[in-house]
Amino acid sequence: MTGWMVALWLGVIAQRLFELQLADKNARWMKKQGGYEAGREHYLLIVVLHVLFFAGIWLEKWGLNAAYPGWWPIPLLLFLLAQSLRIWCIRSLGRYWNTRIWIVPGHSLQVRGPYKYLRHPNYGVVMLEMLLFPLIFGAYYTAVIGSILNALLLLFVRIPAEERALMEAMNYNEEMGEKRRFFPSLERL
């Protein structure tokens, strides 16, 4: 890998580690507010998938000598745009943002930023990242396999667990109305 590509790869890993620290800090705050964690049983799957995702990129680039595609600036630009959406999601949820599912009874649902338009914009960003980031490095196997596994985990495990927990604790469907999960309705814009 070229120097800046290694820096990008390490920078994204550092970003994820920072986000885990932020999530831990937010979880401690939510717990003090009487919050509890839901859906704990699947969290290890998410962690393992993300570790394998970064390992897959590294393996393809170093072990299989994957070539950078000539069009790598396109997925890089789209990935950087997705990062701005990721930051918007995190800032919009503030102390309620987490990598785990935390419910704080008595607190209202956070419907700011992209959450005004979508139910799960952060998960949409994660899906984009799982596809785009490996493409920058020519790690096509990781892009395809990682994207499919991530989508299955989010669509069939994580999102249903989160929505179930939110519906049990607050007026989730009432608050979210007809909002879609990942792509806004043109009528809402």
UniProtKB/TrEMBL annotation:
<dbReference type="Pfam" id="PF04140">
    <property type="entry name" value="ICMT"/>
</dbReference>
<keyword id="KW-1133">Transmembrane helix</keyword>
<feature type="transmembrane region" description="Helical">
    <location>
        <begin position="43"/>
        <end position="59"/>
    </location>
</feature>
<keyword id="KW-0472">Membrane</keyword>
<dbReference type="InterPro" id="IPR007269">
    <property type="entry name" value="ICMT_MeTrfase"/>
</dbReference>
<feature type="transmembrane region" description="Helical">
    <location>
        <begin position="130"/>
        <end position="157"/>
    </location>
</feature>
<feature type="transmembrane region" description="Helical">
    <location>
        <begin position="71"/>
        <end position="89"/>
    </location>
</feature>
<protein>
    <recommendedName>
        <fullName>Protein-S-isoprenylcysteine O-methyltransferase</fullName>
    </recommendedName>
</protein>
<dbReference type="GO" id="GO:0016020">
    <property type="term" value="C:membrane"/>
</dbReference>
<dbReference type="GO" id="GO:0004671">
    <property type="term" value="F:protein C-terminal S-isoprenylcysteine carboxyl O-methyltransferase activity"/>
</dbReference>
<dbReference type="InterPro" id="IPR052527">
    <property type="entry name" value="Metal_cation-efflux_comp"/>
</dbReference>
<keyword id="KW-0812">Transmembrane</keyword>
